[in-house]
Amino acid sequence: MKVLKFGGTSVGTPARMKDVSKFITADGERKLVVLSAMSGTTNSLVEISKYYYNQNAAGAGDIINKMRGTYLEHVDNLYSTDKVKQEVSKFINEKFDYLLTFANMEFTGKEEKIILAQGELISTYMVSHYLVETGINAVLLPALNFMKTDADSEPDLNYISEHIQPLITDKNVQIYITQGFICRNANGDIDNLQRGGSDYTASLVGAAIQAEEIQIWTDIDGMHNNDPRVVDKTSPVRQLNFEEAAELAYFGAKILHPTCIQPAKFANIPVKLLNTMQPDAPGTTIDNRIQHGTIKAVAAKENITAIKIKSGRMLLAYGFLRKVFEIFETYKTPIDMICTSEVGVSVSIDNTANLETILQELRKYGTVTVDKGLCIVCVVGDMEWENVGFEARALDALKDIPVRMISYGGSNYNISFLINESDKQRALQSLSDHLFNGK
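Now predict its structure.
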């Protein structure tokens, strides 16, 4: 069985829902389909939550009733029989009536997560009923019955596998539909997966049922070899190793979240990134294969801050780096890049929520300088050190651009450069020209 995930734009209108339904049933194969909320719905639910936080029930009610009208209009356009229209309309009205009840209670993060879950619950109900109306043997699987996180807010893989397996045994069912993004936490309360959202759900479910393949359908033809928003002549990368894909996702490739493919990696299940607007395009396949001797792609991550700690006490001393890293750990601030010398260490971070407190702590150990407005540019591919000249090609592309830091050797899959944000577009274009376009 294959697992297919479709995002909000793919189910954003009745016409799109019909297109997706035709597509997933065309070959007659059994599938498990993960759906997001209709596009724009989650943003509206966030806005409703903000009104409730501010005790403005009237403001929340205005948005709720506007959404209700839109969804009921979708019902008229999606279904052809009065019976199904009435059934789905009743469900939608119940959901929006439920959203209005939050005006009468104390509103916390717990209530917000319940509200945010409603988008996926509605979209999957609508699509599954459309499939049944058109004669497809489809079953709606409530994700809240099997998707669960543990006490550390990480997916409980054993629980997911144990609880979903018995639900998909009916060989007569062609399509199983479930919700992305939403889950229950260790206390049994409604929660969400946050990182990667519906993509994460698809990867977790695929691993849990040992799927043949996981397909993530978006509005772009796979992962490109550079950012098509700022660079000319980009092209899709047809194959990536899981590690390469994770590096690109972490360093700025928006099509994928870096953690969401990890369950598929460990289960050795290929992931395909495909385009709903061009379903025949090959997209990008992510698996455990390694294509030796190739540079695959470039990505960039903005809003980076560099911190340098210089201290004579570091010279020939042990324990200095541990003290520095413990400060970042205490304030739950991940480090992106690190470079060291005999008397100093430079690191880069993208989370500056606790920056001033971190700097105060670091000043106990040396002189601290800070650079803001920086950007990490990451070149990804087979970066084994035996591949003579790979790093030189990247360096040559950036010969006219000031480089604050270089990270090479920490991974077999990337070389990273820290530059000014103002040089980002020029750097990305030059790397494309040198690495991919033969200039």
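The mean pLDDT is 92.
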